Amino acid sequence: MAVGVLDSQTKSSLNGSTLFDRGSLKEQELPPPLRSYLCLTMLACFCPAYPVNIVALVFSVMSRNSYYQGDYDGSRRLGRSALYVAMASIIIGLLVIAITCIVHFTTVIRKATTKSRTKLLNNLN
Predict the structure, then answer these.
(1) Given pLDDT bands bounded at 50, 70 and 90, which one contains residue 15?
(2) What is the pLDDT of residues 53-90, one digit of tens each?
(3) What is the residue extent of each domain of the chain?
(4) Number of helical (H) and strand (E) elements in the chain, helices listed first
(5) Bridge partners, 10 (sequence order)
(6) Rounded CA gap, 18 and 3, in Å?
(7) Cα angle for residues 8, 12, 18 (degrees, 5° grid)
(8) Judging by DSSP bridges, how do beta strands 10-12 and 18-20 pair with one another?
(9) Is 16 left (phi over 0), alpha (psi -120 to 50) or beta?
């Protein structure tokens, strides 16, 4: 039983399976890199903007699924949407944290000043 060459790029093995020549892999066009921003969306899940960052995570997972199914344009579009929603989630989360800190510390200072004023007035009487 002799091994015959089918064409210049593929070869047939003894068991009948087809082997590809290394030169044919270089000629094939590689898929674009995956940009699903999964790490960024998982980081955004720690921000206190819960409905928004869950949407970013869903977009990121959908982008990965589209990429592995071969829909590279859909994957790029969903990845870009995941990026924008994750950035919005991080900005909203930082605003919520800043507003909460401002409100908390201004009320603590007011309580402290009113307590010290009443204490001072009681000491004067």
Answers:
(1) low
(2) 999 999 999 999 999 999 999 999 999 999 999 999 99
(3) 1-30, 36-124
(4) 4, 2
(5) 20
(6) 11
(7) 95
(8) antiparallel
(9) left
C-alpha span between 23 and 9 (Å, rounded): 7
Report the 10 Å Cβ neighbour count for 74: 15
| 63, burial (CB in 10 Å: exposed 0-12, middle 13-18, buried 19+) | buried
Could you tell me which residue, 121 or 7, shows the higher pLDDT?
Answer: 121
d(CA 45, CA 30): 32
- Start-to-end CA distance of the chain, whole Å, equals 116
Alpha-carbon distances, residue 90 vs 17, 48, 100, 111 (angstroms): 52, 8, 15, 32
CA distance 92 to 79: 20
**What residues have CB less than 8 Å from 1, skipping those under 6 apart?**
14
The CA-based angle 48-43-98, given to 5 degrees, is 35
**Stated pTM of the model:** 0.66
